[in-house]
Write a structure and sequence with these properties.
The complex is a heterodimer. Chain A has 27 helices and 4 strands. Chain A is mostly helical. In chain A, the strands form 2 sheets. A two-stranded antiparallel ribbon of chain A has the order 1-2. Chain A is globular and about 65 Å long. By secondary structure, chain B is an alpha/beta fold. In chain B, strands 1, 2, 3, 6, 7, 10, 11, 12 and 13 form a 9-stranded mixed beta sheet that branches. In chain B, α2 crosses α3 and α3 crosses α12. The longest helix of chain B is centred in the middle third of the chain and has 16 residues, at 272-287. Chain B starts with a helix and ends in a 5-residue tail after the last helix. Classes of the chains: A mainly alpha, B alpha/beta.
Chain lengths: 610, 466
């Protein structure tokens, strides 16, 4: 597409410089610090003893566990991303259809996403215990297994267990990214397809998928990064298992720095290595999918060939067997419309039940007493309902203060990130300018860096600007880490909107700022809401950085996830309180989501420009 | 099926006992790996195993040369001009109430000492290493830190000698063995904060049911008891070698067999005797099969204490803080406490674990730090900390004050025979880290036990350099 408007580079600066500043300050500088650490000789206590050259890297590549950890990482990313995307495509399709109870299914799917990953992982670990785990109880009641299995303990199953949990916790997020893409597809397109006599598969293959492509590409990249960097699932469930059976490079970097080798230099080297791998993967993927139709890449070609063959086979079957044609036609015309009002809600119910199950377990466990929590075999319902758990937790934790702090920080960070990222996303979607690609790549790279790897550099900077335990500092840091997601999601949304919509406004002489605010924002509302929900949830649940730079219990400055962590004691975890607090922490996010959920409903695109 | 075939093979082998005994003389490097069998395992507890001549001295109590008398120097007054009245305290969350305790204490301290201020920050034990490392890397040293180690920071010159910061009454009140364990190169850098000891816990009801009258005193008796208990449908012995605190369990077995972390001041984690001990643990799980499933991946509190509290386990290595946990869990388990069973005629002992308070060198902080430390160690404040957190005292006054507490009394008596981790050695954290991260892998059937201990030995003897 030819550039439509050419601006001078300085004009573009006004739109994107806030993003660039934020990224450089909060992410690039600490990343350089990480590289520097990887070149330092650091002893067990964290004291630096001068330049080490590449010694840390040599040490890293000599580690006997390296090969196993690398292969785990590849399997982890491929399986979790692949399965999540496939399942999420189906779920997004389901949630995009009208059926009774759709709203409830959407709410159910937000819960796993809204609950912090640490807490979700904790409840999964609790459910997957060997002798007293509820998963074993359930499977034994069903007769699937005859003896308890140590799901996360037995080295044979541990890795596959975390992969399974990883998939389950990644699906909701992926589904929402794809759902936003689906809703941007205008219904008229489907009507045209129907007139041409396209069947469901052909519609999906030749209308939905191509139009969903930008969202799918972005979803794949974001989910890959999200999965690669999802530390808590593995760390909480199998982090204390001896050996490296289920370590990925990320959990291993933590073990190297703070658990086994106690070598922060070597840990930083692995983090650098991690980032390099991710950048290479993402760049290759982008090149593969972004090629023009003419010089299409191997990935695009494979994909096209695969789907073509599938649709061909579908078509052949139809012509080969007249009976089956009749059946499938009859199913399509007569049976399905009658089944639909029953089948879709039923499927929705099953989906909702599946994704809510861990939180139902959490809820029920929050009423159990110490003995009941670890009863063998596990009990579904509490034997004695300890209602006091729900009142005592307010004495154990300063929950009001924690909730207030987290609300302030999450709301402010979300607002800040939207104000900074949306204009940049709009401008880059609508204009070609010098440094555009560089900007988008810079944004993407920041998404690749895991906060846990940057925390030392960030802390140092926050000390430098005197921002330790200050609201503004944690708000700015959180905004920076979510900038990339919002920019990319919104960029994709803006780019997907037909220019014609804006042209009328241009005729009337509206400048770019007003066009963006008045014309475009209403159109991209589903994407905006997705970005808002995503950012809010990420900030709400952020742990590592808050723990370091915003942690002053003496003055009541602690966020909710950090405060809840106090319940994890040296010799025991107060699961019942932990679960109560996690559930309470989930409520504001779910409420926020329910209030703005209707904006996610499709069809907005058509009615926005009046 | 394969297991059964192996078992048959092993029973064949035990016919020619001599052969089996020589090839499986547990402990030899050839014996590690796949060849542990009934005969080899029995051999370990028969007292005739290789290396029995190792001297069984107790290094924990042996370091008399340290300058205990130094503490009488008195509270040093600050000599710096820029004296800071606000200090930071960073500590670990022992329980959900730890933060509340310290905040309350800081409030009382500030009332008693107008103008002084203590900022409290309590971090859970999963994150404290990472957080403290971040503080060190950014040179944001806490004025007072509560941790389970100190020698690494002392070796880097980051700590101030602490005996001069507390009054002689406080300094001379520590139980000598704990105090001795707080020195690095002749200076005391750590103030003993809390202690815990270990003992064998046995379920009296299960013992009565299967007809065992006395708790076992040797490894052989322990195996016999565990087999009876197992046959009755319980877990015979709960063995936690998962990453959470397996250094405690390991130390108990290592020491009870006469081995040690170090011998003659050299690291000896992979000594023949220690390989034999690890082989024995593997025997418990893979040959006698008297443990719970996956002992190599089982953590102590959730995996062993909980089932014991629920009455499913015959014996565990319990700890002085376990009774308070059992109480919180409303456990009705009827249990007894006995000395750690030994092998090779080792003398009775217990594992003593202590955590420390240390003070980093921040200009001008000595006066406020000194005031706060003295305030904390006042008997009533200190005892309140111990009782609320469920730990044993490290001072004589507090021991006397707690003598009649039923939860504390049996363990207080064990303190004089307590042995400690070599935590005064700056290499210990790395050895411990590697042990925690790898020991459990040795329990997999057929694992090479020696190579696991070799890794720990390497970690202990090699720095991060080069």
């Amino acid at each position: 597409m030819a550039p439509r408007i050419r601006h001078h580079t300085w004009r573009s600066l006004a739109w994107i410089s806030p993003s660039v500043l934020l990224i450089v300050a909060v992410i690039t500088l600490p990343a350089l610090r990480m590289v520097w650490t990887s070149l330092q000789l650091t002893d067990e206590t964290g004291v630096s003893h001068g330049f080490a050259g590449l010694a840390n890297y040599r040490r890293l590549f000599a580690e006997p566990a390296l090969a196993n950890v690398l292969s785990n990482t590849v399997v982890w990313v491929l399986l979790v991303v692949g399965v999540s995307i496939v399942v999420a495509l189906g779920l997004a399709q389901l949630l995009n259809k009208q059926f009774f109870g759709r709203r409830l299914v959407r709410w159910a799917l937000i819960v796993p996403w809204a609950t912090s990953l640490v807490m979700t992982s904790t409840v999964w670990r609790y459910m997957l215990e060997g002798g007293n785990g509820i998963v074993n109880r359930f499977l034994m009641d069903l007769g699937v297994i005859s003896a308890p299995i140590g799901w996360y303990q037995d080295p044979r199953y541990a890795f596959w267990t975390v992969v399974g949990v990883g998939i389950v916790v990644t699906i909701p997020f992926t589904t929402y990214v794809l759902l936003a893409g689906l809703q941007a597809i205008e219904p008229q397109v489907y009507e045209a397809g129907k007139l041409d006599g396209a069947g469901p598969w052909k519609t999906y293959r030749y209308i939905t998928l191509p139009l969903l492509r930008p969202a799918l590409v972005i979803a794949t990249i974001l989910v890959t990064i999200y999965v690669f960097n999802s530390f808590p699932v593995i760390w909480v469930i199998t982090g204390s298992n001896p050996g490296n059976f289920s370590d990925t490079t990320l959990t291993w970097a933590y073990k190297i720095a703070f658990r086994q080798q106690l070598n922060t230099g070597e840990g930083a080297a692995l983090s650098v290595f991690n980032v390099l791998i991710l950048i290479v993967v993402v760049v290759l993927y982008l090149r593969a999918v972004n090629g023009n139709r003419e010089r299409q890449s191997w990935l695009g070609r494979t994909w096209a060939a695969l789907t073509d063959r599938l649709s061909e086979r579908w078509g052949r079957q139809r012509s080969a067997g007249p009976v089956s044609v009749a059946v499938s036609d009859r199913v399509h015309r007569k049976v399905w419309p009658r089944l639909r009002p029953v089948v879709l809600p039923l499927v929705g119910l099953v989906v909702a039940a599946f994704f809510l199950a861990p939180y139902a377990v959490m809820f029920l466990a929050s009423f159990k007493d110490g003995a009941d929590l670890y009863a063998v075999p596990a009990t579904y319902l509490p034997r004695h309902w300890e209602w006091s758990n729900w009142t005592n937790v307010w004495d154990v934790l300063p929950l009001t203060t924690l909730l207030r702090n987290s609300l302030i920080i999450a709301a402010a960070s979300t607002a800040l990130v939207l104000v900074i990222a949306v204009p940049a996303a709009y401008y880059t979607a609508r204009n070609r300018f010098a440094g555009r690609t560089a900007f988008l790549n810079l944004v993407l790279v920041t998404q690749v860096l895991a906060p846990v790897a940057l925390v030392v550099g960030i802390y140092q900077e926050v000390i430098y600007v005197d921002g330790v335990n200050q609201y503004w500092a944690i708000v700015v840091v959180n905004a920076a880490f979510n900038l990339a997601f919002v920019t990319w999601i919104m960029n994709g949304q803006f780019a997907g909107i037909d220019l014609a919509i804006e042209e009328a406004a241009m005729m009337e002489g509206l400048g770019p700022v007003r066009r963006m605010l008045r014309i475009m924002l209403p159109v991209v509302r589903p994407g905006l809401v997705t970005a808002l929900v995503f950012t809010f949830i990420q900030v709400w649940n952020e742990f590592v950085i808050s723990l370091t730079v915003f942690n002053d219990p003496t003055h009541g400055r602690v966020t909710l996830p950090v405060g809840i962590q106090q319940l994890v004691g040296l010799n025991q975890t107060n699961y019942q309180y932990l679960f109560v607090a996690s559930l309470i922490a989930t409520v504001p996010v779910v409420v926020l989501f329910i209030t703005i959920e209707r904006h996610l409903v499709g069809g907005l695109t058509a009615g926005s420009v009046k | 099926m394969e297991v059964r075939r192996k078992a048959q093979l092993f029973s064949l082998m035990s016919v020619c006992t001599v052969l089996a005994a020589t090839s499986c003389a547990a402990g030899g490097s050839s014996a590690s790996g796949t060849t542990l069998d009934q005969a080899g395992c029995d051999k370990i507890t028969s007292g005739a195993a290789a290396g029995a001549s190792t001297s069984l001295k107790q290094p924990g109590g042996g370091s008399q040369s340290l300058q205990i008398q130094q503490a009488s120097l008195g509270t040093g007054l600050p000599k710096t001009t820029a004296s800071s009245k606000t200090i930071s305290f960073v500590g670990g969350a022992y329980t959900g109430t730890t933060e509340a305790y310290w905040k309350d204490l800081a409030g009382k301290f500030e009332t008693a000492n107008p103008g002084y201020k203590v900022n409290i920050r309590i971090i859970d034990w999963n994150n404290i290493d990472q957080q403290v490392s971040t503080m060190i890397q950014t040179k944001q040293y806490p004025d007072i830190l509560n941790q389970n180690k100190f020698s690494g920071w002392a070796a880097n010159g980051l700590l101030q000698p602490i005996d001069s910061l507390v009054s002689p009454t406080v300094g001379n009140d520590f139980i000598p063995s704990f105090k001795e364990n707080s020195y690095y190169q002749g200076s005391q850098y750590g103030l003993p904060l809390i202690a815990s000891t270990r003992a064998l816990f046995y379920n009296k009801d299960i013992f009565a049911k299967v007809g065992i009258s006395q708790p076992p005193t040797t490894w052989a008796e322990l195996v016999a008891a565990a087999q009876k208990i197992k046959a009755a449908g319980y877990t015979g012995y709960g063995l936690p070698l998962g990453g959470e605190e397996n250094q405690g369990e390991w130390s108990l077995w290592m020491w009870s067999n006469g081995g040690d972390w170090k011998s003659d001041n050299q690291w000896s984690v992979n000594s023949q005797r220690n390989v034999e001990s690890l082989n024995f643990l593997s025997c418990l799980s893979n040959v006698y099969k008297v443990t719970q499933p996956n002992p190599g991946q089982t953590n102590r509190t959730d995996g062993v204490f909980r089932p014991f509290a629920n009455g499913q386990t015959g014996m565990i290595m319990g700890a002085s803080f376990a009774p308070s946990l059992f109480k919180q869990w409303n456990s009705t388990v009827n249990y007894g406490i006995a000395p750690i069973p030994v092998n090779n005629g080792t003398k009775p002992f217990t594992l003593g674990v202590q955590d420390y308070l240390v003070s980093f060198k921040n200009p001008g902080n000595t006066e406020a730090v000194s005031k706060f430390l003295n305030f904390f160690y006042q008997t009533d404040n200190y005892v309140r900390f111990l009782t609320s957190q469920g730990f044993l005292p490290t001072t004589q006054t507090a021991s006397a004050a707690l003598k009649n507490e039923p939860d504390f009394a049996p363990y207080l008596d064990l303190l004089p025979i307590a042995k400690f981790y070599p935590s005064t050695d700056p290499s210990f954290p790395k050895a411990q880290g590697t042990l925690e991260a790898q020991l459990g892998t040795a329990l997999a059937p057929g694992a090479d036990t020696k190579s696991v201990l070799d890794q720990v030995q390497t970690a202990a003897t090699q720095g991060n350099g080069g």
